[in-house]
Amino acid sequence: MKDLDMLSAILAEIKKYSRIIIHRHQRPDPDAIGSQVGLAEILRTSFPEKEIYQVGGPVEGLDYLAVMDEVTESQYQGALVIVTDTANSDRISDKRYVLGDKLIKIDHHPNDEPYGDLLYVNTGASSCSEIIADFVLQFPDELKFSENAARLLYGGIVGDTGRFLYPATTAHTLRTAAVLMDYGFNANKLNREIDQISMSVARLSGFVNQNLRLDENGAGQVILPSEVLAEYGVVDSETSAIVSVPGKIDQVLAWGIFVQQPEGYYRVRLRSKGPVINELAKRHHGGGHPLASGANAHDLKEVQEIYQEIQRLCQEYRENN
Ligand code: AMP
Q1: What is the pLDDT of residues 266-291, one digit of tens each?
Q2: 285 φψ region: left (φ > 0), alpha (ψ -120 to 50), beta (else)
């Protein structure tokens, strides 16, 4: 099905249902919340007679964007469920998404697991929020932004593009952001909210810079053992703010931040300025975008294996570019 036909089919389903429940992924980031709640707000504005809910686990420090609704299991009966920004069904928060009448996936990650009755995936979009904005712009007679929807989608785009730094940022991304900004929300305040970090995280970024291991091809590694997180008073969900820190360094080409979890294993956050790292992530219980992925390492041995793979990718990239 062509993209526009799929978006029409999704709109037709939305029109059919009187109750729509929208989910997104665990450990949400601004694009997860922005696309989810942005879509919820658009549907509330466009179809005031429908019941629209945004559902999922804790928003982990993103409550300046939105909070979740309480929904009971029985409310899923006869409901349409839409999941935004989530490539794999096991990362959907929460698991009641299966209880609805029909399931729709809307995403911008590689479509590794094509779940749902209808799915729209555009890996060329900077963010899922950009896709939701495009959806509205395709059907301007039926779908409407509100100021808050525009704020949420703009926040999602800013979050996933590193404020328009990453290569997924296109001219279309900037045009879409401009359309959203015209809705009059306080973009400066929102940019500050997304950008600001706590003093503990600022101190941890000092640790990251001091303890970065870097090879001659630009492969970087930072290990954050539980003791270090405790010493700095930082929890796992706050480490999102330091993942981009090594990328500022000119010699760094691709890197992994290995964050030890209370259970002992390591959550791996992989980023790259060139070498494709999502295949590596898939080999270690993860996945994601070509230049921004996540994985898991069982122990320090697997941490080192992953670092060696990053080193190999950087070496190959340097040889071929
Ligand atoms: P993160 O480092 O958690 O910000 O994740 C970066 C990207 O990788 C995001 O687009 C995630 O959707 C994806 N990702 C992270 N962890 C996983 C995982 N365990 N499985 C699949 N994709 C993941």
Answers
A1: 999 999 999 999 999 999 999 999 99
A2: left
